Structure formats: structure tokens, C-alpha cells
Amino acid sequence: MGETGKSDARQRNQTRFWLSVLRLHSDIFAELNKRMQDEVGLSLAKFDAMAQLARTPEGISMGQLSSALKVSNGNVSGLVTRLIKDGLVIKAMSTEDRRSFSARLTDSGEQKFLMARDAHNSILADILQQVPDEDLTAANTALREILEEMHAGDALG
Amino acid sequence: MGETGKSDARQRNQTRFWLSVLRLHSDIFAELNKRMQDEVGLSLAKFDAMAQLARTPEGISMGQLSSALKVSNGNVSGLVTRLIKDGLVIKAMSTEDRRSFSARLTDSGEQKFLMARDAHNSILADILQQVPDEDLTAANTALREILEEMHAGDALG
DNA sequence: TTGACTTACTTTACATATAAAATTATCCAT
DNA sequence: ATGGATAATTTTATATGTAAAGTAAGTCAA
Questions:
Q1: Nucleotides of D under 7 A from a protein CB
Q2: For the domain that residue B106 is a member of, what is the CATH number?
Q3: Is A6 within the bounds of a domain?
Q4: Is residue A105 part of a domain?
Q5: Which residues of B touch A125 (CB under 8 A)?
Q6: Average pLDDT over chain A, rounded to an integer
Q7: What is the pLDDT at residue B157?
Q8: Both ends of chain B: CA-CA distance in Å?
Q9: Which chain B residues have a beta carbon less than 8 Å from that of A30?
Q10: What's the number of domains chain B is made of?
Q11: pLDDT tens-digit readout, B37-95
């Protein structure tokens, strides 16, 4: 005995941490996604894609978009198809490489993104309204630290 | 001026927090899900459902399972169907209420869950191997605090 | 009892995600 | 130039998730 004691405490700590992250993500995501859909007609997936496109007004390739969003190529393919159907995004064939496509926001997409960004901020403010600044700051410090440590290794694929 | 100063800092704090939660969730989820699939042939969705079923060996109704997992009824319906096809779960019609079904793990499901739980713990340990105990503890404290504050209101639906 | 409501669950239509195969275009060594 | 490897993207099959409609069973007032 004694050998497993420290290990078990560590394991409980890890599990507690993961459960907290899961719970926070699930609670915030559900509310934010639902209200974004209701208030501006955009899912978070679409909003995230548009946010990346807004950062690169000159256009961005499907592959780069997929890397930036950290989702699969196939997923981006469908997402962009739906955004095009919504009239928010356009795709142009690259002049240099005919395999490649450059996507960017339409004018209407740009306008919608600006409204959506404001809505996103104010919904998040609602969700976190009971959380004091110092608690947010403490969490930010702790989470940034853990993200850095996780990627120092890098145990992640 | 002066009016928006505090508000903007708060907003940045909120956004930073949400981005950190998103990133942590995405990084850990992707790795944990993939390795659980590779090493024990279970997605996290299936593992989570089995964990709940393991907690209630006497059986649990579809509706209670859906509440416990915080996912929709329709989702649980499909998830349980797939787990039954895998031979890990069985469903029996309730004797009191013929609308209701009680789901529980099969013997094979119980055994698989015990292995899966060990795998889950050790994969999580791998992912967090570079994170010192005190950093996990600090994050746990900060996150629990925020979860409580969020649900104090309750701004969440 | 009957008829209205509620409850438990499934089904359907769709969005979002992955992995793997398919497609098409480019590049490079010969 | 040709042929084989590589690269960018789409397509397909499947899992996971929601919301909304559908089905069937229980409840309860009159």
C-alpha cells in the first residue's frame, strides 16, 4: 500500500478536470449555439467559419480553412457548400493551381458576420453575467497554463 | 470615452475564457475519442452512456438516461440501438408502464466497460502528463467556481 | 366510459463531424 | 514526354447531435 495513493489522487484530479471542461463546454455551447441560431440564424459552426473568412478578406483555400478551424477537409467542404447556398460565401478557382479553391465572404456575408459577432459577444455576456471578473481571470490563467503544458510535450496528435 | 473601457476588458476576458474552453475541449476530446476507438472500440458517446448504465445496474429508462447524459431523447434512442447491436446493452419493456423501457449493460457490456474505464483513465493521464498536480487543482477550483456561478442565476436554459 | 391531455419513446429530416475512397491536377525523375 | 508519386478537394459511409412530428400508452375529469 502507499504506492497507489498518490496515483489515485492524481487520477481523481484529472477526471474532475475533464468532467469540468466537458460540462462547461456543453452548457455554454448549447446555449450559445441555440441563441445564435434563434437571433441571427447562424450555427456556431457557420459563425466560426465566417470568423476565419473575415480574418482573411483576400480569400483562403479549403485546406487552409480546414486547418484553421481544426476540422476535416470533408467537413469544410459541406460547411462551405451550405454557406454558399445561404449567399454568405463565394468560392473561386485559384488561377495558379486548378485543384485549389479560394473562399471568401460575400458583402452580405460580411455584414451578417458583423451583426453575428455582436450577438455572440452579448450572448456570452449573458451566460457569464454572474461570473466576477477575477474568477474569469483566474480561470484564464489556469487554462492557458494547462494548454501550454499539454502542447509542450506534445502528447497530442 | 471611459465608458467602454471597462466593458471591453470584460468582453475580452469572456472571449478568452470561451476560446480556452473550446480549445481544451476540442484537443482533449479529439485525442480521447480517437484513442478510445482504437484501443477499446468505443466512442466517447458510447462510453458515457455505458458509464451511466454501470451506475444503475438495476436498469434505467430511456428518458432518465437522456436526462443523465443531457442529450435528446432521439439521440439516446439511436445510441442505445447501436449499443444493443454491439451486444453491450439490453432493453426490456417495463412491467408497470408499457410505454417505458429499462436499459442495462449485458455481462459482456459490464466487462467491456471496466476495461474501457481503465483505458479512459490511462489515456487521460497521457494527455495530461505534462500538467503538474497544482495546475490541475488550480483549474479545478476556478472551473467549479464558474460552473456554480453560471448556474446560480440561472441564465442557462 | 369516453374524450382530452400528457407522457415515453421512436422516427424523420437535417446539421455537423470523421475516415477512407475517389477525383483531378500538379510535380518530378527519368 | 511519360509515368508515378503527391497534393487539394469532394464524395461516400457512418456516427452523433437536435428539433419536430408521429405513435402508442397512461391519466383523469365529467
A1: 7-13, 15-21, 24-26
A2: 1.10.10.10
A3: no
A4: yes
A5: 10-11, 14
A6: 94
A7: 55
A8: 35
A9: 157
A10: 1
A11: 999 999 999 999 999 999 999 999 999 999 999 999 999 999 999 999 999 999 999 99
Least CB–CB distance from A140: residue in B13, B149, B157: B13
More confident site: B37 or B152: B37
Using a CB-CB cut-off of 8 Å, the residues of chain B touching A127 are: 150, 155-156
Give the structural domain span for A37.
Answer: 14-152
Rounded CA–C1' distance between A133 and C10, in angstroms: 45
Is A109 part of a structural domain of the chain?
yes
How far is C-alpha B10 from the chain's CA centre?
29
Which of A25, A35, A121, A143 should be substituted to probe chain B, the one whose Cβ sees the most B Cβ atoms within 10 Å?
A: A143
pLDDT, one tens digit per residue, over B96-121 is: 999 999 999 999 999 999 999 999 99
Do the Cβ atoms of A22 and B151 come closer than 8 Å?
no
**Long-range contacts for A76-84 (Cβ within 8 Å, ≥24 apart)?**
A76/A49, A79/A45, A79/A46, A79/A49, A80/A49, A82/A46, A83/A46, A83/A49, A83/A50, A83/A109
